[in-house]
Design brief:
globular, single chain, about 325 residues, 8 helices, eight-stranded mixed sheet, five-stranded antiparallel sheet, alpha+beta
Length: about 325
């Protein structure tokens, strides 16, 4: 029986062949016999309550000179796909939320959506980490300039960041008595109208911002440490950080094991944890990266692990959907 996988992603022609995690996942899915279908966020739509997308059959190729082939587009019901993988990069904005409604409509009709749409809405990548206070550094989530200023006075060296960004964008390190404090907080909070996060600055960032990947509750035993370069305190690769693959420390493993059960419970099959020193700083649920770098160094086959987890979930999903509909038929709700 043929299996179908749809992917929602940023333009495939613009990805970095040597680093793109979505490409690794698609290659693994294709190797496992999935027929692939490509769509971008603007291709999704609801018609009379039914979820559709303008999709294009996709073939991926492990070749840096040409890594994809696309056929003609056609509109198909999303529930005709066995699984849809959401790989659209942030920002997490209103359009992203609207998309989750469409994925959720497909989910209700039997399609497996990775990651679960409700959890994509519920689990803000910065705020979600606050559910594990035993793992996080001192932090504050607020839009009060007065309260944020007091947090800086208490901790002396602080990182301020928006709740909906990615790649290190708009992140500020501020020390006590910094003359730019007011303008930084006014800009980030939009004069007290937008909530942000403050975290105590962790000097261990100089040794790397570690990306730890979790696949269906399984902690990958190696991480990518993203090390700042020059005078920039940010380790994000998008901000110029350099990557180094390392085994997890005991503390890294402990943090990941604290979080993993909640990820499984929420239907978050593929997640990236950010750890600086001994502290969890973010939980990335929308479009985690760093698979290729870790795979190349340690042959971890992370894409294959994710596709295996998806196949298990599809089998369970089909059984559950069949039993549920049989129950409805027996009760006379479906004729």
């Amino acid at each position: 029986m043929e299996k179908t996988l749809g992917v929602v992603m940023d333009p495939i022609q613009s990805i970095n062949f040597y680093k793109d995690t979505t490409l690794s996942i698609l290659l693994a899915a294709q190797d496992q016999g999935f027929n692939l279908f490509y769509m971008e966020q603007q291709d999704l739509f609801l018609e009379n309550g039914a979820p559709f997308a303008e999709v294009r059959p996709l073939r991926v190729i492990n070749n840096p000179d040409g890594w994809y082939e696309l056929d003609q587009a056609s509109a198909v019901p999303l529930n005709e796909l066995d699984v849809v993988i959401m790989r659209k990069d942030p920002p997490f904005d209103s359009e992203f939320i609207y998309s989750t409604y469409m994925w959720e409509a497909a989910e209700k009709l039997g399609t497996l959506v990775v990651n679960k749409p409700q959890s994509l809405r519920d689990c803000n990548e910065k705020v979600f980490a606050t559910e594990f206070p035993q793992c996080t550094p001192p932090l504050l989530v607020s839009r009060s300039i007065k309260r944020l200023t007091h947090f800086l006075e208490e901790h002396q060296d602080v990182v301020f960041k928006p709740l909906d960004g990615m790649g290190g964008a708009s992140i500020f390190r501020v020390k006590a008595e910094d003359q730019n404090l007011n303008v930084i907080l006014e800009t980030l909070t939009r004069f007290g109208n937008q909530t942000i996060m403050a975290q105590k600055y962790l000097p261990e960032i100089t040794d790397g911002d570690k990306r730890v990947l979790v696949v269906d509750g399984e902690v990958i035993p190696f991480c990518l440490a993203r090390i700042p370069t020059g005078n920039d305190f940010r380790g994000n690769l998008a901000a110029g950080g350099q990557g180094e693959v390392r085994p997890l420390s005991e503390r890294d493993q402990w943090i990941a094991e604290q979080v993993a059960p909640s990820l499984v419970e929420r239907g978050l099959l593929f997640v990236g944890l950010d750890i600086i020193g001994d502290y969890l700083t973010e939980i990335n649920v929308t479009s985690p990266t760093c698979v290729q770098e870790i795979d190349r160094a340690q042959n971890t086959a992370i894409g294959e692990k994710l596709i295996a987890a998806i196949c298990r979930r599809i089998a369970w999903h089909v059984r559950w959907f069949f039993v549920f509909n049989l129950f409805l038929i027996n009760r006379g709700f479906i004729l």
